[in-house]
Amino acid sequence: MIGRKKGVLLMAITVKDVAKKAGVATSTVSRVINDHPSISESTKKKVRKVMDELGYVPNITARNLGKRMSSAIGVILPPLDSKERIGNPFYLEIMEAINEEARHYNLTTAIATAKSFDVLLENVQRMHLQKQVDGFILVYSDSQDPVINYLYKNHIPFTLIGQPYQYENEIIYVDNDNQLLGKQATDFLIKNGHKNILFVTNTTHESLYFERYFGYQKAMMLANLKVHPSIVIEQTEDYVAFDALLKAAQATALVVIDDIFALRTMQLAQLYGYKIPETLSIISFNNSIFATLTHPYLTSIDIDISELGRVAMKKLQELIHDEISVGVRLVIPHRLIKRETVIPLNDQNT
């Protein structure tokens, strides 16, 4: 008995009640609650339907006390040390996808973030030692990151979105083929008649930078075109040198590290008198909401952020329950979205 409502006695619905109405064993209901792979999808749907009809809510807290589990996972963001990172929609989209997938497993999410790696590591250590979460998802890969070493060396379940710098054969990670992304973005510019192409970035220590820049280099070399050093814009003085670098290379097109920084790059180029795309074409990555917020709309490569988050969460759940081995790489497909910031070079003066 759990109480009264408008004179009606309310009785607690049990696993036995669900099992009886569904026509299955109580052990089957328990396995459905735990989303055990031994139970077929049709049986899971039938049992869950009965649970909804009866208003049965699993006592997750009590169940996990015995298992010493928290029913939560931690999502680790990189240090939010710049306006671009704080405002980058990638992190919001990836968290939404992770949250949505976590709901299927009756899990909640907790966010770990900070302005520096040192503080971020402290936050992650606290979450682990206080058993606030059962595992983690890192949504970045950075060569300066101490967090991944802590997780690995302490045998803490985690999955990574991005390509690791070490332990590649022992980590479960989900990623796009970022080198292929960089190559295809550059190839697209080359096919549109551009030869003097530069790569622009605001980071030089994240895995996706190296991979996308390598892809740019590969495309340029295969086309027998000059490979330029990447233009790195991290400090105020870097903005001042931007125009001189473009003029020195006689650049007609740019490959930019991601959408939000592409918008900043477009603003900077326009400040120096360039017209997008008439005198400077631009292509970027992520296909975020920013790609269509201002004109001209940004040509971008869609990396399927939702699928990155969904798969990372699914694999973490399998890892926590010993249903998957380590050393797994999963590659998420991508597609190029043609918009307004790239036009054929021979059309620019027509």
Structure notes:
The protein is an alpha/beta fold. The chain folds into two domains: 135 residues, Response regulator (Rossmann fold); 126 residues, 3-Layer(aba) Sandwich (Rossmann fold), CATH 3.40.50. The protein contains 13 helices and 14 strands. It has a six-stranded parallel beta sheet with strand order 4-3-5-6-7-13, sandwiched between helices. Strand 1 and strand 2 form a beta hairpin. Helix 1 crosses helix 3 and helix 6 packs across helix 13. This is LacI family transcriptional regulator. GO terms for molecular function: DNA-binding transcription factor activity; transcription cis-regulatory region binding. Keywords: DNA-binding, Transcription, Transcription regulation. It comes from Enterococcus ratti.
